[in-house]
Amino acid sequence: MLGWTALLLDHLKPVRVTLLVLAIAIVASFSVDQVAELFLIALWTDPSEARYLALLGSSALAGLAIWSAARNAYRLRYPRWPTLQDERAAALRDWLPRALGAAVPLLVCLGYALALARLPHGPCGLASHCAQRGWRAMGLLMESAALIVFFTTRRRLWHAMSRRMPRLAVPADRPSGERRVWRVRELGALPVAFYLVAVVLNVLATGLIALRPEALDGIGPLSILLIAEAFLCYSGGLLCMIGDRRGVPLLSALLLVSASLHWLHLNDNHRVRQYPAMSTHVYPAMQPPDTRPRFDAYMDAWLDDRCAGRRPCPVIVVSTEGGGIRGAAWTALVLGRLTAELDAVRPEAGEPLFARYLFAASGVSGGSLGLATYVGLLKASASPDAVSLERRAQDLLGHDFLAPTLANAFFVDFTQRWLPGAWFDDRARALTRAWEAAARRQGIPAFAQPFAQLYASGDADTPALFLNSTTVAEGKRFIEHPFAPIATPERQPWTAGLDGSSWLDPRVPLSEVVLNSARFTYLSPAGTLEAHTANPPVPARLQLVDGGYFENSGTTTLLEVMRLLRNRATQRGLALRFIVIHISNDPQMSDFIDRHDAGHPLPLYSAACPPVAGPVRDSVRGEAIAPFDALLHTQAARGEYARMQLLHALKTDDAQPAQGDVLWHFRLCPGNYPIPLGWTISAPVFKELERQLDQYPLAVMREALRAQLAPDSQ
Question: Nearest 5 degrees, angle CA 335-CA 637-CA 666?
Answer without folding.
Answer: 20
